[in-house]
């Protein structure tokens, strides 16, 4: 039962990432992922890497939490639930920030 929340979270992040890949600056081949304090772009990566980085990192975090708390099901379940709740929000926030920064550059 507890694995439904992480699965739904990963599906939601995948859908958010697909939306971002399609709608955020579709004419650009690469997207920025790092900015300086002054707002200048320090690093850009291909579009797919930029929108998939957070879902991949959240998936790795889920696997790590599940592995490290394998002896305590209550801790494992609580960790996975929290990551499942927070993950799609982080992805949506990042893509909204990215879209806003790209609009400001133009």
Report on this structure:
The chain is mainly alpha-helical. It has one domain (4-104). 71% of the residues lie in helices and 11% in strands. It has helices at 4-23, 47-68, 73-105; strands at residues 30-35, 41-46. It has a two-stranded antiparallel sheet. Helix 1 packs parallel to helix 3 (73-105). The longest helix is centred in the last third of the chain and has 33 residues, at 73-105. The relative contact order is 0.20. The model has no long low-confidence stretch (mean pLDDT 91). Keywords: Membrane, Transmembrane, Transmembrane helix.
Task: Outline the secondary-structure elements.
Layout: H1 4-23, E1 30-35, E2 41-46, H2 47-68, H3 73-105
Antiparallel strand pairs: 1-2
Helix pairs in contact: 1-2, 1-3, 2-3
Shape: elongated
Low-confidence stretches: none
Oligomer: single chain
- H/E series: HEEHH
Strand content: 5-15%
Let me know the number of strands: 2
Strand order of the largest sheet: 1-2
Helix content: over 70%
Structural class: mainly alpha
* Rg: 16 Å
Protein name: DUF1648 domain-containing protein
Keywords: Membrane, Transmembrane, Transmembrane helix
């Amino acid at each position: 039962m507890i694995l439904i929340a992480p699965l739904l979270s990963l599906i939601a992040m995948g859908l958010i990432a697909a939306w971002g890949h399609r709608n955020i600056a579709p004419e650009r081949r690469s997207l920025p992922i790092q900015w300086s304090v002054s707002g200048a772009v320090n690093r850009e990566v291909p579009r797919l890497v930029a929108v998939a980085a957070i879902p991949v990192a959240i998936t790795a975090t889920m696997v790590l939490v599940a592995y490290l708390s394998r002896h305590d099901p209550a801790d494992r379940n609580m960790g996975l639930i929290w990551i499942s709740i927070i993950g799609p929000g982080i992805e949506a926030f990042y893509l909204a920030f990215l879209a806003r920064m790209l609009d400001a550059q133009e």
